[in-house]
Fold this protein.
Amino acid sequence: MSYQALYRKWRPSEFDEVKGQDHIVTTLKNQINADRVGHAYLFCGTRGTGKTTVAKIFAKAVNCLHPVDGSPCNECEMCKAINSQTSMNVIEIDAASNNGVDNIREIRDEVTYSPTEGRYKVYIIDEVHMLSIGAFNALLKTLEEPPSYVIFILATTEAHKIPITILSRCQRYDFKRITIDTIAGRLSDLIQREGLDVEEKAVHYIARAADGSMRDALSLLDQCVAFYLGERLTYDNVLEVLGAVDTSVFSRMLRCIDGGRFVEAVRLLEEVVIQGRELSQFVLDFIWYMRNLLLVQGSGDLEDILDISAENLAALKEEAQTIDNAKIMRYIRVFSELSNQVRYSSQKRVLIEVALVKLCRPTMEQKGTSLEDQMLALAERLGVLEKQLENGIVVTAAGGAGGAYPGGANMPGAGGAGYPGAGGPGAIPGGPAPKAMPEDLKAVIGEWGRIISDVPMSMGIMLKAAQVAQGADNKLVLGFSDPMHKAYFEQENHKQDLEGAIAARIGKTVEIVPTMLEERKEQTGEFYIPSKVNLSGVDFSFEDE
Ligand SMILES: [Zn+2]
């Protein structure tokens, strides 16, 4: 007997075998049970999520002579004929290769004849978004007045390409990407039925690599099993076959990026290339690695959804302590963008190297990225400079007498009225500004968002996380939850920088008092407490005393 691919062999033949699309299956079964079947369906969703499989089961169920709870019996003549593809009632059309008007006209002519046996003629049009405009128009005519015995099931991965006139005539069902657990469960089931020997960790890796597609998962399993025929399939075998890398590489890579060690990062990438690993997969796996780090940082209760081994989890937890989550989020963003570019590129390695340069040297990131990214990039750049200073490397600030902040670290958009970053607070024209009055403090709080955008970015990030309030003697109280932030603003130069920025905005000198949020709560009576600190910085609302 010739070998049959797993996904063909184990293709579900009834609704209950369809995994991960319960919402759709239930609705369709209900329709069949209640004999309220529609005439046009649109099945949307990424590849391998079960669209055509469900369409075929549905086609069988509506024709089945003895359906069981809305599912086909697979035993009657109709079911058997459809299963053996000899029935004239189920017509499958691949719109990718039959996308012209004539193809659809053929269907239109055909549908005028009622089925010779069974109840419904079911037309399954796969990749329907590939139809030409003319073909869609021809199809529309049929969809407008379909004969009672005709059902159209249109399947597509790109619903946004379907004309609205067609969409409005179809019942739409969105097929979800299948979860890793669901895929792994199905794989384990089939592995058992096939009598294969596969390590559980390997099963999970394949499920994850399939990225929500059951068909891909089964194809990958097929590929791995074929490679190690008759042997136990281990996690390492799977990595080998799929061209993937062990997670220790990711940890090393992340440390290189975090430490700004570009040369080392590129060498590491070269190692990966020499090992013959698939670079698109490498990028995807690295994203997953960083995602796991983020989750571990976020909570200790998520271990069950991290599909990693206990020993990797321990390593991950350790790693999570050493790196800031805002950075990881930025890395994930850069790598997600990269994974799209890399997939179809012949220059995968170069693209990855460019991303590594970007990440290792945040200074090199260009305009066009979001403000948040720019802020983070600059904060990191500052961190790198600080580390270099600690190590005794002299940095000359291009902006001149800017003190701790190298030139160019000012926020974009501050405009002419902005804080004179390079000159420091002493450079405010017109000498020292008059002392603040209570209404001035309200003005400060009202202008808070703009003040944040006037100060250097690293400072702005801390201020965004802080709460402001009016303190005694018309001082401005800054409440921090992070003691490091409070300490930062206790340093005279940072304090002066902020006070300078405030003076530049409202024309008054306001003294700032950094406190911890808990301390401030005790003195609440004396302060104006912003009940809600809006991070966009424009709209602050206050609680009256
Ligand atoms: Zn049947």
